[in-house]
Automatic annotation (TrEMBL):
Superkingdom of this protein's organism: Eukaryota
Annotated signal peptide: 1-32
Protein name in UniProt: COBRA-like protein
Phylogenetic placement of the source organism: Eukaryota, Viridiplantae, Streptophyta, Embryophyta, Tracheophyta
Start and end residues of each COBRA C-terminal domain: 228-421
A GO biological process held by the record: plant-type cell wall cellulose biosynthetic process
Keyword line: Glycoprotein, Signal
Family designation: Belongs to the COBRA family.
Any one annotated GO CC term: plasma membrane
Amino acid sequence: MGSLPSETLSAPKLAFYAILLAFCFSINSTEAYDALDPTGNITIKWDVMQWNPDGYVAVVTIYNFQQYRHIQAPGWTLGWTWAKKEVIWSMNGGQTTEQGDCSRFKGNIPHCCKKDPTVVDLLPGTPYNQQIANCCKGGVINSWVQDPATAVSSFQVSVGQAGTTNKTVRVPKNFTLKAPGPGYTCGPARIVKPSKFATADKRRVTQALMTWNVTCTYSQFLSQKTPTCCVSLSSFYNETIVPCPTCTCGCQNNITQPGMCVDGDSPYLASAITAPAKNNFAPLVQCTSHMCPIRVHWHVKLNYKEYWRVKITVTNFNYRMNYTQWNLVVQHPNFDNLTQIFSFNYKSLTPYGIINDTAMLWGVKFYNDLLMQASPQGNIQSELLFRKDKSTFTFDKGWAFPRRIYFNGDNCVMPPPDAYPWLPNSSPRQFISVLNLLLLSFCHWHSYWLLASEIISKDIANYCLFQVYGHVS
């Protein structure tokens, strides 16, 4: 191979390529940074509570300090590698998935002898003598904002062959957290000041003998290679419905990937749902152009003199998943003037200090906190009423649509800006409002007939379906 020209090795060019190379290698590392939750993480705290003849008893607690990202079923899986030849004699509130080779022990057999144990939470209904506080929820941990009381999970472990003093105990290495799949990267365990605990009467404080912490951060890029949700848009002032971009989460390809999706009216739907898969939570999505398990639709519904109204619809296209404790995070500049929200909980998030443009939305408990799997009932919807700030409010240039939307902590793909519903330039505002009222009245009586008749455009038919039922065909 010939040598490079001498001029390519000049100092300025070498510096430029070095910076470019460093930037390229840093792309994946920045994926773990979430601009809307910059300090969010999962912290694993390991408290040594007492010494045993050959080791110690510790309480391991998993704290979810993420504002809106939670761990859903089938729950968390925690792993590590022992620093020496430690074994687990017994556990409460959790269990290892494998016992390992314990043949060297006579009589009393440890709970686990593996060098790299993997621990899971126990299920609800576990006998009380096997429980501790904050255990036994099947590994499900809610987000910190949504329900801080259930954003914690704990188990107790009795460790042998580990040393019986602060100087002889060695912290485990190579912590891994799956929730339930990949996505979290854990740093090394760091010894910190021993945790302190107040008694029930608040009159006495005790402390752990030794404590170390592990911090795990989330990366959507590591969690899945393709997006899991998308956003579609519509408005009262334009009959065009902007769909999710084609092939957002995958493309239909029944030749090389048969069975990757199924039509809702297919006679094989029931057998496809129960067919064996790599795991029971592998998505089986309804065949669509976008192939996403979740679609969020933002519809600019009405325009009043002092207010404007938005309708949000979340549709589940996954036949294998009910989304429990779901949540949305929406960024829009008018959230500082949110007046009323219907059938959703709301909390303002301020990732940029005093700027109030980000909202977290989630369902009302026992009402719509469960997003059913793909079916006629597989959608939830709400409406938002905003007060107009005359210095910033406009329907022009897509201002009325969100800047970004997260579903369960994952960033949803937005349509390209040039596809947003445009505002008619020549139509008087009074005409738009009257036309909208006439169409709305007509839709309530003829929505599905419109779609079937093919007498008018499918866009108008879909407009009617959204106005009345909250979904399109």
